[in-house]
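#random but structural
TW: two for the price of one
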Amino acid sequence: MAISSLADIVRHHAAQRPHALAIHYLSDGRQWTFAELDSESNRVAQRLKTAGVGPQHRVAYLDKNGPEYFTFLFGGAKLNAASVAVNWRLAPAEMQYILDNSEAKVLLIGAEFLGHLAQMKLEHVRELVVVGDPGDSGFPTYEQWLVGAVAEDPMIPCAQSDTCYQLYTSGTTGLPKGVELTHANFLGSLSEGFAALGFDASSVNLVCMPLFHIAGSGWGLVGTHEGAAMVLMRDVDPSAIVNALETHGVTHALFVPAVLQVLLSTPGIDTADFSKLKAIVYGASPITESVLVSAMQKFGCGFYQAYGLTETTGGVCLLDAKDHDPGGPRAHLLRSAGKPVPPNRVRIVNPDTLAECPDGEVGEIWVHGKQNMKGYWKNPQATADTITADGWLRTGDAGYLRDGYVFIHDRVKDMIISGGENIYPAEIENVLMKHPGVADAAVIGVPSERWGETPKAIIVRRDDMLTEQTLIEFCRSQLARYKCPTSVDWVASIPRNPSGKILKTELRKPYWAGHTRQVS
């Protein structure tokens, strides 16, 4: 059968290769063939249907990486429902906002997050199911929930334009926005966007990045679409990654640069056998040339840089392995994000005049193609601000084109990318301004050897006794830890333009002196 929807991926391989390995979960050794994955996702679909889930309803997953994410994802897709993966690193209030905003009807939650759940008052969730030991919560386990469910595919039809994924990204206002990704978005990415990576039914794909990221769950689907076996890890564990690459004959993997850097100093890496590795994809944040070159030497496989956004269903540009030429005549391309992957197109636009920029001139990167999101969930204004009438998506990144290659220069927006996580200063500034000892606040990204960049708070104190640690702890009480400032500087005043806008470029300059660009 042809694959025309997310649900068809597992249907297709269950029909063609029923006994082939689909998922191997390293945390406890459980395995699923494609026939078993298809059957279990049918049972999930039947239980979701009983809970009142129908076409274009939302179902949510809140846990670290687990195979139940995929049975839930495909089960929901068989009802034409959309999956919402919640970032487990968020604070309870942030989790609640996403669950309420998405109007998720069923929540599959990991036992270790029941404490977070106790701090939430959810408006729309009708049914709660626990992965692991539910304790005295009264909620059924995933296994109990499935008892008696028939393994019959409901075969609910869907349109290519229907939403199948809803991932949340922080916004400039501080409130996360639900990115609606469709079946067409995903199939455009899976069947065309990553063809250069050489996935096939004999491939073994390592999935260790968080599934609430497009770099985690989306990457998992890249391999599964082609019938590859997925080696799934619950969390990023450098020693376990090195062992998995060798022991399980991994052929493909995706890492953010911070993970690659840690892997290079992980015990055992010098003696591990990586001969099965064919491709490592890296992206989600910039990488230093020294880390990249060391990783290329250590792993000895093809390296590919991917550039994209959640809003573009992941990578829309790819720097091919042949363009990785450290020390050679094409070494300058290591600073590039690669070329647009057909049928995606990229143009560079002057944000003031909206005129297209010539080669070498910096402007905002705009993307056009099958992978551009449908829009932001129930936020037409934000959608209109991001997608033009003729379908071009404004990325908010500044860069330039040269000989068809995209080079990232800066960011039009103030977003900070720390270890692959998108962080918006406005969200942190809103929290900082709630502290009684703060008179004014600004947040910028500053260089970090490990994470690329981290948030720094620039503060005008109302109370001279206010300390850096007190302010950081205050932020941690209301925000996910990775969003919180790692350092604080005190100033007499924060520079602003005549309209009151903080001059972030001026604030960043002293910290980025000596760097070729104003982002890591």
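TW: number two ↓
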Amino acid sequence: MKRSEQFAEIREIADAICNYSATTEQKQRLEQLLDNNIDAQQFYYDYISMHMQLEAAVEQNMEFVYRRMTEEFVVRPKGDEQTIATITPTEQLPNTTTNSVSKSNKLRQMRSHVFIVLCLLIAILTALLTWQLFNQSTAPFNAQILQGHLSIVSQGNIADNNLFAGEYRVEQDAVIALPNDVRLHLTAHTVIKLFNGNELQLKRGLLKLVAVSKQKIIVHTPSFSVNANGDDLTIDLTQPEPILTTGANTLLLPSRWRPKHFWPFESHSDRVIDLANNAVGIAGKSTRRTKGLVGQGSYYFNNHSTDRIDLGSGGGTVPASGSFAVSDGVTLEVLLAPEYSGELGDIDQIFSKDTGDEKLRMVLGFQHNSRKQDLMPDIDVNESLEFGLYILGQGYHRLKLPLDGQQGRPTLAQLKDGKMHHVVASYDVSTGLKALYIDGQLLASYQYPPGSKMLTGGPGNATIGNTQGHKRWQEKSYAGVIDEVAFYDFALPKFVVQQHWQHTQQGKNYFGLPANAEPLPVQLTLLLPAQTTLALAPITGLPKKIMAP
């Protein structure tokens, strides 16, 4: 799709402003379209830049000439006899006395054309001023270079020590003053793009923002955006993981935070609604709704073969296809109050998904069996929480978290205390770390070679509270309550896992929002700890760990 088609509404409103016909509603709509949308702002910037260039050309060296003998309208540089653009009559009639009236009419028409063109040019010349009058936040601006040297990458302009909207490379450590008394300290080789007095993009390098005033500044990066919220801020993109040093009230907008699927069980529908996608589930006849561990609704499973929620295949037809297919990593997150017996041979599956081949499956559940194959690491364990996943080049492996009360791990009896517990299973392709958490604590892990991919998706159904294969429904059915099931196509960092656990302790859903049946928002704003240095996940922009308070 062309950019002009993608942002057709922005272009239409901008044209209306140029024609002095924009309504108050259109102006308000334009503010909404540009708010926190870097692509839309860039399109608008390019669009306005085109008019600015035309403005400069007209003001400096363009002239309009009407040639009466040939009935031509010429637009050309001043003093240049070469025609740049020519408007001629659509018909040429014979030069006879009978055509004198027609020629006179054409002359009047051509003069009318000249008037229309001049009016259009005047409208273009004043469009920028009109925009500035109703929306100062995105109006073109100039910043001042206080120190150092920068060069233009694209669409920029440097006049003396003034910078205008555009993209720049820092050739020598520099200090830039924005119009709102905010200072940008930039190291050499940093690349930034200035949009307006309130927003900029850091493409690479290191930026230290010093807020002389309390002006709110938004900085965009490839994987996250940050609102300095009137305080100082430092962003370092020179490390493998972005490093962020916050101010007093720094707000983070990660590029990826939403689960691929989210079933909070809050809807009163006869279907199990997915609030993040369209994997709507069907509850088995023995599965019944009960009071939520968070919010109002959850499901109780009575360890019966018909106790399950079928979620379908997510559209998968072959392995690595459908909405359950992932490439960057995977996370399963669930709240539960288990009643697992722990007896030898008993299996209670919390979540199951395979690709149509039982060996290419993903499983989270409780187990106590004598089968010790496929364990990684290979340990001697009885009752346990288990996370099974197929890793390319490694095969299908099960990570077990023993429920033995050792080294900070809970016993099965502690998990069966009737209270809510938070269980997370994750795998990160970039680091190769496979992990199991209970109540925000990392209690079991295994390290694969970084970059090892997994195989998920495919035609097999996903199931909550049981397994896909009907031959094993009876022996793998779950006993207890399950609530707030989420499936992500990336690995949740430990920092976020702990944050989600804390949110549930406050009666909220994982994301700190009220537990309800409303679809998840498109964007999520996170308030970060004050005056803290954090490492962020490079793929998602989510907080990964605290480096220093």
